[in-house]
């Protein structure tokens, strides 16, 4: 059974990712609205419905690209459309033309992510783009996928095509999904290299960092329980030291002490070059990772290591206590 609670930004932003697979949570306000939370931290709204005798899970889109109220509002319309029997289209359509429909109707991404997907389609699916979608066979798919260099990209494109053909069947443009019978491509998933001993070495390496701004930013990756993009773009106006909060989310005691010791002489907590904030300090991080003895460690690994152990709760004070308890445990 899915864990039920009232969906709000604070809760969804701080949902811990499962160590493997995915979790499902359910909205109390709109019980038909649910969310997948994958081990990579991807959060996807969906609805579940029995349509024409089959259990069907209909994806709405990823959070926060789609906000909570938009997802709630989309549920009745999506379920009503799912009950309609798909109209069979006698006029044939090429995969290229159908992908334009699919991207418009089904893909909810920002402009950068969408451009990346469109480039991948052009680069990897060229041999079948001009074929009629109803005429594409499993052999056509297998040959196209086999030409893609790298199992990770090949696996993602195969999964993408499976979703495309599923939508083509629902839309009446195809009668069967040629991807279903293909063997899944084995991918060498990256193993996150951080453990408690490595975490101690990492903290020692950060403390030895000469650049004060970088040292504080890297410490905040640990104390802030947030991804690097959010930590590096922190603004002083979003911090409330009277209530120990940052954008309404609780701050750990160590985060408060760290931030209060920094000079508050600009807009950004961690200023970068020019007038902007710190963005992606790869050189400094590589130096820290090397000094910690974990050269392949990424900044996201730190956030994942902590979030997988953090006990989640909707009560801010209890959540803050859990943050402090976890830091005391891993730093002991």
Count of strand segments: 8
Q: Roughly what fraction of the amino acids lie in strands?
A: 5-15%
Pick out the low-confidence regions: none
What is the count of distinct domains? Answer: 3
Overall pLDDT metric: 88
Number of helices: 14
Helix/strand structural class = alpha+beta
What is the 3D shape?
globular
**Main sheet record:** 5 strands, mixed
CATH architecture of the largest domain: Orthogonal Bundle
Distance between the termini: 36 Å
Annotated CATH topology of the largest domain? hpI Integrase, Chain A
Q: Which strand order do you get reading across the main beta sheet?
A: 1-2-3-4-5
Helix content: 40-55%
In the CATH scheme, the class of the largest domain would be Mainly Alpha
Radius of gyration: 23 Å
Order of helices and strands: EHEEEEHHHHHHHHHEEEHHHH
List keywords for this structure.
three-stranded antiparallel β-sheet, hpI Integrase, Chain A, alpha+beta, five-stranded mixed β-sheet, Double Stranded RNA Binding Domain, 332 residues
């Amino acid at each position: 059974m899915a864990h039920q609670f009232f969906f709000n930004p604070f809760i969804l932003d701080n949902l811990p990712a499962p160590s493997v697979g995915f979790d499902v949570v359910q909205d109390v306000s709109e019980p038909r609205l649910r969310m997948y939370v994958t081990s990579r931290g991807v959060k996807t709204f969906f609805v579940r419905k029995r349509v024409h005798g089959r259990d069907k899970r209909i994806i709405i889109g990823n959070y926060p690209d789609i906000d909570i109220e938009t997802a709630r509002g989309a549920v009745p319309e999506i379920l009503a459309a799912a009950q309609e029997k798909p109209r069979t289209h006698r006029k044939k359509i090429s995969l290229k033309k159908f992908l334009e429909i699919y991207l418009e109707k089904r893909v909810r991404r920002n402009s950068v992510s969408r451009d990346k997907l469109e480039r991948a389609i052009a680069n990897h699916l060229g041999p079948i783009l001009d074929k009629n979608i109803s005429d594409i066979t499993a052999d056509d798919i297998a040959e196209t996928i086999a030409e893609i260099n790298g199992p990770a990209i090949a696996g993602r494109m195969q999964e993408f095509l499976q979703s495309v053909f599923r939508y083509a069947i629902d839309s009446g443009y195809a009668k069967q999904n040629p991807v279903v019978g293909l063997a899944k491509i084995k991918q060498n998933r990256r193993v996150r290299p951080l453990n408690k001993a490595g975490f101690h070495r990492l903290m020692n390496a950060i403390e030895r960092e000469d650049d004060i701004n970088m040292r504080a930013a890297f410490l905040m990756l640990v104390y802030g329980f947030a991804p690097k993009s959010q930590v590096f773009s922190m603004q002083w106006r979003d911090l409330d030291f009277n209530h120990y909060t940052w954008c309404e989310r609780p701050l750990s005691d160590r985060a408060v002490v760290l931030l209060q010791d920094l000079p508050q002489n600009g807009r950004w907590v961690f200023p970068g070059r020019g007038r902007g904030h710190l963005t992606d300090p790869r050189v400094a991080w590589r130096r820290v990772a090397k000094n910690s003895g974990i050269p392949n460690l990424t900044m996201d690994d730190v956030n994942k290591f902590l979030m997988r152990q953090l006990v989640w709760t909707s009560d801010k004070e209890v959540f803050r206590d859990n943050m402090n308890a976890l830091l005391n445990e891993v730093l002991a």
